[in-house]
Amino acid sequence: MESQHILSVLQQVQEGKLDIHTAYAKLKISPFEDLGYAKVDHHRHIRQGTQEVIYGAGKAAEQIEGILRSMLSPDSRNILITRLTEEHAAYLSERFALTYDKLSHVGIVNRQEEITAPGFIIVATGGTSDIPVAQEAALTAEALGNKVERLYDVGVAGIHRLLSHIETISKASAIIAVAGMEGALASVIGGLADCPVIAVPTSVGYGANFQGLSALLSMLNSCASGVSVVNIDNGFGAGYLASMINHIGGNENENTLS
Fold first, then answer.
1. Structural domain boundaries of the chain?
2. Radius of gyration of the chain (CA)
């Protein structure tokens, strides 16, 4: 059905019945493949610039396999699967070229290093315990074509660790600040950087942390300008947003990581 629809639109363009802008609009909103348990959006890349990402949590391994087979084409690369269990990863590794990161539970099918934006993204964590969420953000950004610099364990309890990277911070196109406890890292980085800062609260902390709620509220109440906040432990959302920011303007962004 997809190929027939595309051919029909192209035929109408050839015959002069459709102008190219109308044809492009028709292709942007269609089609998808209905697998019964999932409707695979084959035109996500046309509309949003990136292909569909598979959320692995709650899906059977066979369902993920079916979605992958629907998405695969001869030139498919960097198909991202988030929240993928080790058990499911083992199953999929027998059937696809899967790269799996146990720490962040991120899987990438047909992984290929491909930089499509001239700038770079920093992913910083308050502590080592925040790294699993940070890795989800970093791997997401890398899969979407970005250069990523990791600054792990640079929290405010030893702020000199962060300040030693001030030159790198000043050159970034976007910065992801991942922190639990009181979530102060995002505000500090927001006061140092001239680029957008995406704050990611984590569920790391003692009882009054309320599984990340205290960090979330601290980040939402940041007095530093240019700080936005995603949901608790949402490394994927931060990595995706940072990629969108890094790709804005194309080659007009001259920031580079040496």
1. 1-30, 42-109, 120-252
2. 20
Average pLDDT, the chain: 88
- Kindly give, in sequence order, each residue whose CB lies less than 8 Å from that of residue 225, ignoring residues fewer than 6 positions away: 190
Token pair of 14 as six digits: 């050839």
Tens digits of residue pLDDT in 103-135: 999 999 999 888 999 999 999 999 999 999 999
What are the residues whose beta carbons fall under 8 Å from the beta carbon of 190, sequence distance 6 or more? 177, 197, 222, 224, 225, 226, 227
Distance CA 5, CA 121 (A): 39
User: Which amino acid would we find at residue 182?
Assistant: E
User: What kind of architecture, by CATH, is found in domain 120-252?
Assistant: 3-Layer(aba) Sandwich (3.40)
Q: Where are the beta strands (DSSP E) in 4-97?
A: 32-34, 39-41, 54-55, 79-82
Q: What is the DSSP string of 169-234?
A: HHH-SEEEEEE-TT-THHHHHHTT-SS-EEEEE-S-SSGGGGGGHHHHHHHHT--STTEEE--TT-
The least confident of 119-123, 132-136, 157-161, 216-220 is: 157-161
Distance, in Å, from the CA atom of 52 to the CA atom of 143, rounded to the nearest integer, reads 12
Distance, in Å, from the CA atom of 147 to the CA atom of 128, rounded to the nearest integer, reads 21
d(CA 239, CA 124): 12
Query: Three-state DSSP class for 30?
Result: coil
